[in-house]
Specification:
Largest sheet: 11 strands, parallel
Strand content: 35-45%
Shape: globular
Helix content: under 10%
Structural class: mainly beta
Mean pLDDT: 75
Number of helices: 2
């Protein structure tokens, strides 16, 4: 009976988006009390090439190609976001397409709608069932006390094994694979 204009429909969509949870597993304790405070949005009709630096949360629904630096804040790549970038942020949530590397001080969350290809360096990562993920992931541990990180052998440990000797290889001394029968 009543016809809504495109502007009214868009306002209703934005209002619904702001009222719903982006992720069912998002930790609300790390969010600002006012979710609209100090947040910028790159809309789906916007395309940016170059470096983006900011001192506030950033939501990307458009296309971005270049570095993104919001090191003390949250970056959200929305459902319609298309990003090719190196990202430096405190927290990153990916719901759209991202190709590049993510350096997060805290957490990276990847929703079931996301398509991600690249490297992730963060303290923690959350991946929803159904997300496409092709990544190298390095979870950074908080530094331990000096006594915890040193062993009886000193502090020259190999990071992979925690020992001074390299891990055993799958090759024998003559270069043959010991798992394959010797004929």
């Amino acid at each position: 009976m009543f016809k809504r204009g495109k502007e009214t429909e868009r306002a209703v969509e934005i209002e619904k988006f702001e009222k719903t949870d982006e992720l069912s597993f998002t930790d609300r304790s790390t969010m600002d009390p006012d979710p609209k405070a100090n947040k910028s949005v790159i809309g789906e009709q916007i395309s940016i090439e170059g470096t983006i630096r900011g001192k506030g949360d950033l939501v990307i629904e458009g296309a971005v190609k270049g570095n993104i630096e919001v090191t003390a804040h949250r970056l959200t790549i929305g459902l319609k976001g298309q990003v090719e970038s190196e990202i430096h942020a405190a927290d990153v949530t990916i719901s759209g397409n991202l190709r590049g590397n993510v350096y997060a001080k805290d957490r990276v969350a990847i929703t079931k709608e996301a398509v991600f290809s690249g490297e992730i360096y963060a303290k923690s990562i959350l991946v929803e069932d159904g997300a496409y993920l092709k990544a190298k992931i390095e979870l950074v541990q908080e530094s331990r006390k000096d006594t915890d990180s040193k062993s009886e052998f000193g502090d020259n440990l190999l990071p992979e094994t925690g020992s001074k000797t390299p891990p055993p290889t799958d090759k024998s001394d003559n270069g043959e694979d010991p798992l394959v029968g010797a004929g």
